[in-house]
């Protein structure tokens, strides 16, 4: 688990221009008031919780409104309702929200404590003491041990490794799980682990102030009268993990929120859904309409008092001084209380319950549970569920999110023959994912038992000593910068700077060419059981221009050879003309590999003349020691010797995608969700993954590459892309002049003439995100079906998300698995964390989390769509039933002298939203679904209405209000007319206020219940019970409260004695109820029928298909593995950084001196490795490596010389 459980905040005090600190001098450093290493993300403590939480809750308009109502209800002159009708639901809402806030803050406290109370050894008073992280201060010297998290940003002083190297894993920072190397200054490295010398160390550091640049550091160290420059290679950043290093000492430079990691954390914001924002607008409109109604009724009371009020003063005498105007004033406030049910407080209670229930569905979903890591899906928030049904843009990390960060050796081409595919007896190629007969490597005692390869013909070729095959794997075993360590004999662990190299060396190992160990001038290999030691004469290192690396070695027989591997386009330029025929066949194989999204390398070699090499080596030595133009001179020498090569073949490595990624992206694209990949990887790697996961496709008209190094270049490239996509509309009103950029609010969606993709580099993106160019970049990107941003920093990821949020009226989702994704996750409307190999920071900062990217389609297309649909249905129905309930009061006012008399019984008013209509609408909001999950996946177009806000909007709200107004007229005037001049069966009069109130409220309850039934698409036993149970509850409560017994107990509280039994036993009453209910629902039924017939929605069309297929619902289609042919070369599998060749040959990479080892290899059992390959072939994962062990020398033994490769006819 990551040590992060925190959010970020920045120092708001005066800006720091330069940092000064002195080692082991707390008094001096404290004078600058630097931040300590403690983290605080909680909002409350025991004493501040209640006042602060209530203050925050009453900042909500609705809560403040209900508090005002409560105050009004305790004033006898204006209150016609008891105070408990408001105070009970208000306390319930406040309590539920407070409990939720308390739980969240308790979790934050626990997270803070977990981080702050971690222990680290700090040098205090000439002794190492175990201190809490929160007590570490700038200027302290601390000791870290293997596999510990780096406590703060440190200057590396010394380490246990040769030349004071340390190995760190930076997954939390940049998402890369490859080990990085840092090296201390020699002057501090001499301190070693001598506590006395470290305690006497008083170096002074002057460096840059806290900032968010992960790739840059500038400063100086003044010590013993000398100044030493400091750069990023000597800094350990918080968020790293120490690997394969026994111990190291570091000087704290930045602590707490001033560390570079914390500076990169995005600002936490309170996330609210678009429905919440719309609700705020609607609630304000409703309040305004409420005041308008109350004004009308107050004016009516004033007029009535003047014209008719004097007629009633005999039995309703006015109090002294009360005029008609004062009566109208009191009536206004009385109707504010009576009509407050247009926005009942139970609405907010119900919304919270619905959101909580839909969150539980996500937590309980077994189909989003990942058994391999025992990881269920989790909803960390309950307030954003319906927003999941409205996503338009998905911003995804690549490494660990789309991919597993595991490289697998899948296929290869050797001397014109392709290996890796499996065929049946009829010659049909089989799907390897379903093939269960892996190759047998038992002939090789040093093979990795977890390596999987299914083409048996390659193993047979190795056993038959095919010279081309042997040379192929010999090259893979020699041409690399991998380090090997052996904890005990036969147990090999490879440390590769890139997972590509690890996969290739592992493949060579299994096919009998085992890289065993290395020194600065030799490489020890076990070839088919025989130990051989090759003299390493030179490494021609990789860089981004060369796109290849070479080694020059001398075999035990004295033969000089150059082995080279790299991008096929580069290698082909260096080949001897005799390889043309082999090159054509290999090119076909490379195209096949590229079509499957595999990463390819071409392999070649040449034998060298001893005399020529001696001359070349002398010139190489001179060039490497020159001070002027060193790089160009070396490049010329490399070009000279790397020519006339002989082609051996090619490798195909899969940067293994997570299961189901291409299908998920395809489904989301059908749902009109645009996916942007924001990654720190280089362009070739990201582009290759884009093709692998179907984000970029061969069928696209064009994929634009934006790689300009100046603002002018970037702007021109963007405009060229716009001209290609919209030849007649590239420049329009949406591309405003620079000085008008701030006036743009939204950019409308546009459709390009075809399908396009966009790939942009980090340095180009920095220019594109400038205010003068951001609109052009956004418009160009939005015209494309897919966008990939490469080499982006964590802050740039957040800036891209913010740009889309700012100018597009769309809901965004960000998904990632590392600390470098946190700012993006926090910036988006919804953040999703993948619990993968890169720690838990993304998960802790996210709103939702799960283990696999493929679960995203279920989260959006099923849970998100259902949640949005349910919430919209709930809101439409809730406003309908409450508007209808309230408007009846309004019509009644014209018949009761505007006296603020309620049309219903007071108990009915209290229980209407709490008991009679609460459970049915909750049942619909928790269980309803238009189609099941199978149809949701088969018809992803069902998701589109949510993006367009078609289910609940201002238009839908006003339709609901008009429908409620009509129903309230029916509910008042039909019973009014039905009871006028009506008598009972026995001739007695049935027309009185109480009977009318009972009939009206019964008609209302039946009308809204039938309307609910029409709204529901999915009836369950629970729904049915809630609906019928609520009606039964109404009659049970009504007959009980209107009974003689209740009246005798509390006469003032139960005045409707005998009304129920005297009214509801009359046939005309029930006929009135039926007539009223039919008239209420008839317009809506007619409207929906005509809509379905004349203008059906996508939901209507799909539900028609469902009804047709209900007897035998179609199974979900099985997706075959996609095999594509491609003219595009896949990204070359060579992702490590420049400079490792120098480290290898200098010896700075190497471990302690080796000891001799026995040569009895045939007696060894099968070896095990420190990484777990997954999938159908070799897997190399750079994470989870054990500590280094002492590596032992391999004594060279005689073996037969490998045969020279000759051209053979194909």
From TrEMBL:
Cofactor(s) the protein needs: Mg(2+)
GO cellular component, as recorded: plasma membrane; trans-Golgi network
Binding positions for ATP per the UniProt entry: 397-399, 501, 542, 565, 599, 679-681, 791, 797, 820-821
Alphabetical list of InterPro entries matching this protein: ATPase_P-typ_cyto_dom_N, ATPase_P-typ_P_site, ATPase_P-typ_TM_dom_sf, ATPase_P-typ_transduc_dom_A_sf, HAD-like_sf, HAD_sf, P-type_ATPase_IV, P-type_ATPase_N
Gene3D superfamilies found in the cross-reference section: Calcium-transporting ATPase, cytoplasmic domain N, Calcium-transporting ATPase, cytoplasmic transduction domain A, HAD superfamily/HAD-like
Active site: residue positions: 397 (4-aspartylphosphate intermediate)
Location within or outside the cell: Endomembrane system; Membrane
Record field: transmembrane: 81-99, 281-304, 324-349, 878-901, 907-927, 956-976, 996-1014, 1026-1049, 1069-1091
Keywords: ATP-binding, Coiled coil, Magnesium, Membrane, Metal-binding, Nucleotide-binding, Translocase, Transmembrane, Transmembrane helix, Transport
Bilayer topology: Multi-pass membrane protein
Signal peptide: none
Major site of localization recorded for this protein: membrane
PROSITE patterns registered for this protein in UniProt: ATPASE_E1_E2
Example GO BP: phospholipid translocation
Family: Belongs to the cation transport ATPase (P-type) (TC 3.A.3) family. Type IV subfamily.
NCBIfam families (UniProt xref): ATPase-Plipid, ATPase_P-type
Name of this chain's protein: Phospholipid-transporting ATPase
Encoding gene, per UniProt annotation: ATP8B2_5
């Amino acid at each position: 688990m990551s040590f992060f459980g925190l959010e970020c905040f920045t120092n708001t005090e005066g800006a720091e221009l330069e940092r000064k600190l002195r080692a082991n001098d707390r008094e001096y450093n404290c004078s600058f008031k630097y931040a300590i290493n403690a983290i605080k993300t909680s909002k409350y403590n025991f004493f501040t919780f209640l006042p602060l939480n209530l203050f925050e809750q009453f900042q909500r308009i609705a809560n403040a409104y209900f508090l005002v109502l409560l105050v009004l209800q305790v004033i006898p002159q204006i209150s016609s309702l008891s105070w408990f009708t408001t105070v009970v639901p208000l306390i319930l809402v406040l309590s539920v929200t407070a409990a939720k806030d308390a739980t969240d803050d308790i979790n934050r406290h626990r997270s803070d404590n977990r981080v702050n109370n971690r222990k680290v050894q700090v040098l205090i008073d000439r002794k190492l003491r175990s201190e809490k992280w929160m007590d570490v201060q700038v200027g302290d010297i601390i000791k870290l041990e293997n596999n510990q998290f780096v406590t703060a940003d440190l200057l590396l002083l010394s380490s246990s490794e040769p030349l004071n190297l340390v190995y760190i894993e930076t997954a939390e920072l940049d998402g890369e799980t490859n080990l990085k190397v840092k090296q201390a200054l020699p002057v501090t490295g001499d301190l070693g682990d001598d506590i006395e010398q470290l305690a006497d160390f008083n170096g002074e550091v002057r460096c840059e102030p806290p900032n968010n640049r992960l790739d840059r550091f500038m400063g100086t160290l003044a010590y013993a009268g000398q100044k030493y420059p400091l750069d990023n290679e000597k800094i350990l950043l918080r968020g790293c993990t120490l690997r394969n290093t026994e111990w190291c000492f570091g000087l704290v430079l930045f602590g707490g929120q001033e560390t570079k990691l914390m500076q990169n954390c995005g600002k936490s914001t309170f996330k609210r859904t678009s429905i919440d924002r719309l609700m705020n607008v609607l609630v304000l409109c409703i309040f305004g309409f409420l005041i308008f109604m109350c004004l009308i009724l107050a004016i009516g009371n004033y007029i009535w008092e003047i014209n008719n009020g004097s007629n009633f003063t005999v039995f309703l005498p006015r109090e002294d001084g009360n005029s008609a105007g004062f009566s109208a004033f009191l009536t206004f406030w009385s109707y504010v209380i009576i009509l407050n049910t247009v926005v009942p407080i139970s609405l907010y209670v119900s919304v919270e319950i619905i959101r909580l229930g839909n969150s539980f569905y996500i937590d309980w979903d077994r189909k989003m549970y990942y058994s391999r890591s025992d990881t269920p899906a989790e909803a960390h928030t309950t307030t954003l569920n319906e927003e999941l049904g409205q996503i338009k843009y998905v911003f995804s990390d690549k490494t660990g999110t789309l991919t597993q960060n595991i490289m697998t050796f899948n296929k290869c081409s050797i001397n014109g023959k392709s290996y890796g595919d499996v065929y049946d007896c009829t010659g049909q190629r089989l799907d390897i994912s379903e093939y269960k007969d892996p190759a047998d490597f038992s002939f090789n005692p040093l093979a990795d038992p977890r390596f999987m390869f299914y083409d048996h013909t390659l193993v047979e070729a190795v056993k038959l000593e095919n010279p081309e095959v042997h040379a192929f794997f010999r090259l893979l075993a020699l041409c690399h910068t991998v380090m090997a360590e052996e904890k005990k004999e036969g147990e090999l662990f490879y440390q590769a700077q890139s997972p590509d190299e690890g996969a290739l060396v592992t493949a060579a190992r299994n096919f009998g060419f085992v890289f065993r160990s290395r020194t600065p001038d030799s490489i020890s290999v076990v070839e088919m059981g025989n130990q051989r030691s090759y003299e390493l004469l030179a490494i021609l290192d990789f860089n981004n221009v060369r796109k290849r690396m070479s080694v020059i070695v001398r075999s035990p027989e004295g033969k000089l050879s150059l082995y080279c591997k790299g991008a096929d386009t580069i290698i082909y330029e260096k080949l001897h003309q005799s390889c043309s025929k082999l090159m054509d066949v290999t090119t076909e194989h490379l195209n096949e590999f590229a079509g499957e999204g595999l990463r390819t390398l071409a392999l070649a070699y040449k034998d060298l003349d001893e005399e020529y090499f001696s001359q070349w080596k002398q010139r190489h030595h001179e060039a490497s020691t020159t001070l002027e133009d060193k790089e160009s001179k070396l490049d010329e020498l490399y070009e000279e010797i790397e020519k006339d090569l002989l082609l051996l073949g090619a490798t195909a490595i899969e940067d293994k995608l997570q299961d189901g990624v291409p299908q998920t992206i395809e489904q989301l694209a059908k749902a009109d969700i645009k996916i942007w990949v924001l990654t720190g990887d280089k362009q070739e790697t990201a582009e290759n993954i884009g093709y692998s996961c179907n984000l970029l496709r061969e069928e696209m008209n064009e994929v634009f590459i934006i790689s300009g190094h100046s603002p002018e270049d970037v702007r021109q490239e963007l405009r060229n892309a716009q001209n290609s996509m919209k030849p007649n509309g590239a420049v329009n009103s949406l591309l405003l002049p620079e000085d008008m950029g701030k006036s743009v609010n939204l950019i409308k969606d546009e459709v390009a003439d075809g399908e396009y993709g966009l790939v942009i580099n980090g340095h180009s993106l920095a220019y594109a995100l400038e205010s003068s160019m951001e609109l052009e970049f956004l418009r160009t990107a939005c015209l494309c079906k897919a966008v990939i941003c490469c080499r982006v920093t964590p802050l740039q990821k957040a800036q891209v998300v913010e740009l889309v949020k700012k100018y597009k009226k769309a809901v965004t989702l960000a998904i990632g698995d590392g600390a470098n994704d946190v700012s993006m996750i926090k910036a988006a409307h919804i953040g999703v964390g993948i619990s993968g190999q890169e720690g838990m920071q993304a998960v802790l900062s996210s709103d939702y989390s799960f283990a696999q990217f493929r679960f995203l389609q279920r989260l959006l297309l099923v849970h998100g769509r259902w949640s949005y649909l349910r919430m919209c249905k709930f809101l439409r129905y809730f406003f309908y039933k409450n508007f209808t309930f309230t408007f009846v009061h309004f019509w009644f006012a014209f018949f009761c002298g505007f006296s603020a008399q309620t049309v219903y019984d007071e108990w009915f008013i209290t229980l209407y939203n709490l008991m009679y209509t609460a459970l049915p609408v909750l049942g619909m909001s928790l269980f309803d679904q238009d189609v099941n999950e199978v149809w949701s996946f088969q018809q992803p177009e069902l998701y589109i209405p949510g993006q367009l806000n078609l289910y609940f909007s201002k238009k839908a709200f006003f339709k609901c209000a008009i429908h409620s107004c009509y129903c309230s007229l029916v509910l008042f005037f039909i019973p009014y007319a039905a009871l006028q001049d009506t008598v009972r069966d026995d001739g007695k009069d049935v027309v009185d206020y109480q009977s009318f109130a009972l009939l009206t409220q019964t008609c209302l309850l039946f009308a809204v219940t039938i309307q609910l039934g029409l709204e529901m698409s999915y009836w369950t036993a629970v729904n049915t019970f809630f609906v019928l149970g609520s009606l039964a509850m109404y009659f049970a409560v009504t007959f009980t409260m209107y009974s003689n017994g209740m009246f005798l107990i509390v006469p003032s509280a139960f005045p409707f004695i005998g009304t129920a039994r005297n009214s509801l036993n009359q046939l005309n009453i029930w006929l009135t109820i039926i007539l009223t209910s039919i008239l209420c629902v008839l317009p809506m039924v007619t409207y929906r029928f005509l809509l379905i017939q004349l203008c059906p929605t996508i939901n209507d069309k799909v539900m028609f298909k469902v009804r047709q297929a209900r007897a035998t619902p179609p199974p979900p289609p099985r997706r075959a593995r996609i095999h594509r042919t491609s003219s595009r070369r896949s990204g070359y599998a060579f992702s490590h950084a420049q400079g490792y060749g120098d480290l290898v040959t200098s010896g700075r990479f190497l471990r302690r001196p080796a000891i001799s080892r026995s040569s009895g290899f045939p007696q060894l059992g099968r070896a095990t490795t420190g990484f777990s390959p997954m999938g159908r072939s070799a897997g190399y994962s750079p994470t989870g490596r054990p500590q280094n062990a002492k590596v032992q020398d391999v004594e060279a033994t005689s073996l037969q010389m490998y045969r020279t490769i000759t051209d053979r006819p194909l």
